[in-house]
Design a protein that fits this description.
The protein has 2 domains: 54 residues, no CATH class; 217 residues, Rossmann fold (3-Layer(aba) Sandwich), CATH 3.40.50. It is built from 11 helices and 7 strands. It has a 7-stranded parallel sheet, sandwiched between helices. The longest helix is centred in the last third of the chain and has 18 residues. It is globular and about 60 Å long.
Length: 287
Amino acid sequence: MHAAPLAVDALLQSNLYEQKSAIIMTSATIQVGGSFRHFRNRLGLPQDTMVLEVASPFDYPKQALLLVPRDLPDPTSPAHGTVIQDILAGVASAMNGRTLVLFTSYASLRAAHAHLREMTPHLTILGQGIDGPRSVILDRFRATPNAILLGTNSFWEGIDVVGDALSCLVIVKLPFTVPSDPVFAARSELLEDSFMQLAVPQAVLRLKQGFGRLIRSGTDRGVVAILDSRLVTRRYGQTFIDSLPPATIVHCGARELAGLVGDWITRVPDDLVPEHVAGIGDGTGLE
């Protein structure tokens, strides 16, 4: 049996804040939509708490391309899984492996694993819970040039693959917490708008952690593709975009993904500035 407090602010106040004259809290995933408000509220920090946003040392516009398809089925649609599996096969072939795919469910991971095994026999498919434990398949992924790594849960954070071994990151769905999760459900009951006050901020922070798996050094280059139509069809989608590092963003069609991935990876670094990418895709533009 596990228990969790619904709020930690009072506990932190008595056990930490009152015991110290100064405290520094730091993380790459504190802000949501450029604001510290969610972090302050959850931890019970006063509104006059000193905050500082420090820019990343990475040149994200040159090093990372973010692809946002505009024409995917809704994640709740029965067609979503089939479309995603075909996209994954195309992207993996264009990259000749070197791809990490992050899922929000084991069922989707297993289905994609079976599809990729059939459609891309020339590549090594490594699935969490299928081809070995986390540490084993991660080591195999680093050592295998044409490998695709499929992960969920723990693979969204703590994965460090520097260099060309990981050059493409695919995020299948926005990582919302399952509404039936007991702790999430209980905390939701305390809020006026639990979706915008809790569900969205938690998913944003999780997405930022997942995005962070790609660029691990100043010389890394790669592509992130988020295959969730809610980024463009829901009002809250822009909050997710605004919370991510300032990569070069291209809105595109699903059929363009594989070609855009391959084109970005083969470009020389000097051509990776945003103004040289303006003609990519359907012309819907960069942000």
